[in-house]
Design brief:
With about 160 residues, this protein is α+β, with helices and mostly antiparallel strands. It is rod-shaped. Helix content is about 40%, strand content about 20%. The longest helix has about 55 residues.
Length: about 160
């Protein structure tokens, strides 16, 4: 009888151990899925936050003073350019970097940096006698330029 009760105790212990291990594995898998979901959500939020400073300029109308502020704001942004076309300068001037917007959207090269020597300077944009002058009270149509990797490479401003 002693052997039967010992065997029952051992098998109950083994059963409880297996049940406990199963519960831990199920909880671990659930936690892993929740962590992956949270990481994906965090990545989405991070992308939105990094592009938030550009959404103001996406298919909107802004004033000339906002154009000048954008020039000052984005002057240290690395591989980034700003194009401004005014009533006096209909061909436009690129500031910081020259970005390829002449090829059709979605084709190879669209949104890529094609020049590192900018044509325009912020000082000229504020100088009334210069063709690059941006009238602070003027109205400009703003658009964001994204390359084929969906990275924002430029903002274009065209005076209305």
């Amino acid at each position: 009888m002693n052997n039967a009760s010992t065997a029952l105790k051992v098998s109950a212990g083994i059963f409880l151990t297996i049940a406990l291990i199963t519960i831990v594995v199920v909880l671990f898998i659930s936690a892993q899925e929740a962590t992956k979901s949270a990481q994906n959500n965090f990545a989405d939020i991070q992308t939105e936050m990094s592009q938030a400073s550009f959404t103001v300029y996406d298919n909107t109308t802004v004033s000339g003073s906002q154009v000048l502020n954008a020039l000052r704001k984005f002057q240290d942004k690395g591989e980034f350019g700003v194009e401004v076309r005014t009533g006096k300068n209909t061909n436009g001037s690129w500031y910081f970097k020259t970005i390829d917007t002449l090829v059709p959207i979605g084709t190879t090269g669209y949104g890529s940096v094609i020049g590192t020597v900018p044509a325009g300077t912020i000082a000229n944009a504020s100088l009334e006698s210069n063709n690059e002058y941006v009238n602070p009270s003027g109205k400009f149509e703003a658009n964001v330029v994204k390359d084929n990797s969906n990275v924002i490479r430029a903002i274009t401003f065209r005076q209305k």
